[in-house]
Amino acid sequence: MTNTQGMVRLNLDLSPELNQVLEELAKKTGVTKSDVLRQAISLMQILVTAKEQTHKLGINEADQLIATEIIMPSEDIPTEHPLETFMESFGAWEDERTPEEIIKEIYDSRTISKSEYSL
What we know:
InterPro entries: Arc_rbn_hlx_hlx, Predicted_DNA_bind_prot_RHH, Ribbon_hlx_hlx. Helices cover about 45% and strands about 10% of the residues.
């Protein structure tokens, strides 16, 4: 189906289950596993382009009702470190130290007396 001249060769690691799915798709569509992957990349490109343009992609029933909407996962939004969130919520009162300096002082000030270990 494709001309291999000028192509880039990739090595791909798949789980046995995913490889089985790939083989079944190739058999059902009558193409190679490479062709299935190329078509999958094309479909992914369509999905990404649609999302960028705030469109939705779906699969219609015969009566034009959308039976399945294809949703691309949202990008992970970096979350703040819990310590930063804590400091924003409760403030640093008059203390000008960084959260890391405060935590270090708390841990450095902990002591264990010998009586705690005596039997």
